[in-house]
Amino acid sequence: MDDLNAFVIPQGCRIGRPLILKALTGSTNDDARLLASGGAGHGTTVLADAQTAGRGRLGRAWSSPSGENLYLSVVWRAGLDSIDPPLLALGAGLAVSEALDLFTPAPTAVKWPNDVRYHGKKLAGLLAEAIYRGSRANAVVLGLGVNVRGEVFPDSIRAIATSLRIVRGEDVVRAVVLTALFERLDGTLGQLCADGFGAIRQRLIDRCESIGARVTVGEITGVGVDLDAGGALLIRDDYGAIHPVRAGELR
Ligand code: BTN
Question: 2-207 domain in CATH 3.30.930.10?
Answer without folding.
Answer: yes
